[in-house]
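Key result, reporting period 2: structure in, sequence out.
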């Protein structure tokens, strides 16, 4: 009986740990590239991992996901197959970097801010609202 309970508990523990482990960004460029690639691929769980987790960023990412979910299958494939074209990676200081890019499918230039928070590089989308850089 004890073996059965142990096996059930082990199975439940394994089942609860199904979230994928993402690799911590090594630097600002890594965080930006991983975040952008995740959004282009429609992997918003991964994008959220590389994003500063506050209410404004969560709201903005949810809006992006909502827009992505409305795309046709062909449009999603076009995003997934697109390349990230980086114009400029501009460190403002040792903990803030601006990342200017577009993707090869839609050529809209975008600037995201990447910050080092608690020794981790994360994307802060609030810069998109300001669009002053």
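The corresponding designed sequence is given below.
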């Amino acid at each position: 009986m004890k073996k059965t309970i142990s096996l059930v508990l082990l199975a439940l523990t394994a089942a609860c740990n199904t979230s994928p482990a993402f690799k911590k960004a090594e630097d600002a460029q890594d965080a930006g590239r991983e975040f952008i690639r995740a959004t282009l691929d429609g992997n918003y769980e991964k994008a959220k991992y590389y994003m500063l987790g506050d209410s404004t960023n969560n709201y903005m990412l949810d809006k992006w996901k909502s827009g992505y979910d409305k795309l046709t299958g062909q449009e999603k494939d076009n995003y997934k197959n697109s390349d990230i074209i980086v114009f400029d990676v501009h460190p403002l200081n040792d903990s803030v970097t601006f990342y200017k890019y577009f993707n090869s499918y839609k050529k809209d230039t975008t600037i995201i801010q990447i910050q080092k928070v608690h020794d981790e590089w994360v994307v802060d989308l609030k810069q998109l609202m300001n669009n002053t850089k």
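DSSP finds six helices and four strands in the chain. Residues 6-12 have pLDDT under 50 and may be disordered. This case is discussed further under Risks and Mitigation.
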